[in-house]
Write a structure and sequence with these properties.
The chain is an alpha/beta fold. The protein has eleven helices and 14 strands. It has a seven-stranded mixed β-sheet. The model has no long low-confidence stretch (mean pLDDT 94). Its EC number is 3.1.2.6.
């Protein structure tokens, strides 16, 4: 029996339609004091530079296409992003995003008419790789279908969960391995102990100095809700440090702006501050706070109520330093709850 098909909420945002926003609502300030540039298909960003007005561009335009290097391009639409590399004979595409295969193909054709000869799955989450079949259908007249490359961990997970998405035709050894595309070495750096999901990994385009690791962090923002949909917080800091230690100039995180090492420094500082604020609140808020035990007949309300108050206090304590940044109000309480669970569990 096939599973029912579900669409990610975020994949539906601006995937097929665009919206208008108030022109006088300013963009949130940069978390890393970045220099902003208008997007360009021809002019590469310097390392550390970012695309200006990215929130408005995601709302009001079909997609954003930015040249990173001579051969690597960064794509985003509806707050979902990926990269592609134009080789001598073909195109290497990472993560055919759900509901965006037509726009991704259109953006590639703005740059080159070369065939898409390889696809890489960064990890087995349908919102990032769910557009693969539609893309394959759109390029079926190519002389040859593209290679579909994934880590062995991703291939095993797709098999275990009976994925309905096109399966990899090639696998890379886990947690570390590499493959060659048209003279470009691409390295897999898998997180043996991963926060986001068990097959989460970072892919390094060695000669291009570009790192692609969707859902590791959203550049130019505080951590997104539930740390970008992570299944656990426990290993996130070590994953960030592992990726930051690699040799790259441009970071593609699947969401947020084009990233730099400064974004990793910001995230690690923010997480450290939030951990300290959560720990302080846990010491101040007694278990059972806010619950009238004379009106309940089950204790299950007590833990989430305790966590919610801890998260509220931690969020308030960080607001003076971080409250002006993108998505702080929405994301921080949920992230604080994840940290509270972590601190409560591991002592």
């Amino acid at each position: 029996m096939k599973r029912p098909k579900f669409l990610s909420i975020f994949s539906m945002i601006a995937a097929a339609v665009t919206f208008s926003v108030q022109a006088d609502v300013p963009e949130a300030p940069s978390t890393v004091s970045a220099v902003y540039r208008a997007p360009s298909v021809t002019e590469a960003l310097a390392p550390g530079e970012k695309i200006g007005n990215l929130f408005h561009l995601n709302i009001e335009t079909p997609y954003v296409l930015q040249r990173l290097t001579d051969r690597t391009y960064w794509y985003q639409s509806g707050f979902y992003g990926t990269i592609f590399y134009v080789g001598h004979k073909g195109v290497l595409l990472f993560d055919p995003l759900e509901l965006r295969s037509d726009k991704i193909l259109e953006s590639i054709r703005k740059v080159t008419q070369k065939p898409i000869t390889a696809i890489v799955y960064s990890h087995d989450h349908g919102d990032h790789i769910g557009g693969t079949q539609a893309l394959l259908n759109a390029i079926k007249n190519q002389a040859r279908p593209p290679r579909i490359i994934a880590s062995q961990a991703t291939a095993d997970k797709m098999e275990r969960l009976n994925s309905q998405l096109p399966r990899p035709t090639e696998t890379i050894s886990w947690p570390n391995g590499s493959f060659n595309f048209d003279g470009l070495k691409v390295e897999l750096h898998g997180f043996e102990h991963a926060a986001h999901t068990d097959d989460h990994s970072a892919w390094l385009l060695v000669g291009e100095r570009v790192l692609h690791a969707p859902d590791l962090l959203n550049s130019d923002q505080p951590p997104f809700w539930n740390f970008a949909g992570s299944e656990r917080f426990t290993y996130l800091e070590s994953n960030l440090k592992e990726a930051n230690a690699l040799d790259w100039d441009y970071f593609s995180g699947g969401h947020g702006n084009v990233g730099s090492h400064d974004d990793f420094t910001f995230h690690l500082k923010f997480i450290a501050d939030l951990k300290a604020a959560v720990a302080k609140a846990m010491g101040e808020v007694p278990f059972g706070f806010g619950v009238d035990t004379s009106t309940i007949n089950a204790h299950t309300i007590m833990l989430p109520t305790w966590y919610d108050e801890i998260a509220r206090r931690a969020t308030e304590s960080l607001r003076p330093a971080y409250g002006q940044f993108y998505g702080f109000e929405t994301a921080t309480p949920a992230n604080a709850v994840m940290i509270a669970e972590y601190l409560y569990s591991y002592r």
